[in-house]
What does this fold into?
Amino acid sequence: MFVPVVSENTNRSQRIVAQIRSLVAEGKLKPGDRLPPERELAQLMNVSRTSVREAIQILATMGMVTIKKGQGIFIAQNDATSLMNTLGELLVVKKDEIKDLLEVRKVLETQAVSLAVERASDEELLTLREIVEDALARITTNEVDPAYAREHDARFHGAIFSFTRNHVLIAIVSSLYHVYDRMRSRTTTIPGRAIQSIKDHQRIMEAISRRDKDAAVQAMLEHIQSVERAL
It folds into this structure.
């Protein structure tokens, strides 16, 4: 049922996400179905394993798949996710709606980071650190590739939401995924914004790693306010 991915203006990982979402919507993939292993999926879709891995991380953040260690990747059984994804498709960010979306982000993401401090495992915190350190290593001559910056931002914020273990919160955020992504397309073109976001992420990550809830919430709030000023 999987077909090779043709990448044009959209990156490969996003195409993979779109294809799997379509298969779920069409009923070809049902809750509980197991996806092919990463290597096989990469061959079927004619993409790299890195692209598959990024797509799976996005789908997990959206609540559409469940990753079971040692067992595989399964289509999630989550009615809330299906409903919120449907609602999210109806949203389009217009210029006068950006302020509203940023206000929503302040509410959702400060609460998410607070829960992440309480609930993230030590292993998950190491993963978050790797996400940030990889981004810091890619900063060269005060620049960072905009496409990479978008993917990094999605991975970082998505990881924090996944740490909350709150499936309804994850479903709400997944419904806003494409809206968030359109905003990322704008912010990553603002000179210096991508690098500032990565540095903000470092502060947030360090606070979560220390299990310092107040510092993590404050760092997240200041990060979103910084994005708001840039826009």
Summary: The chain has a mean pLDDT of 85.
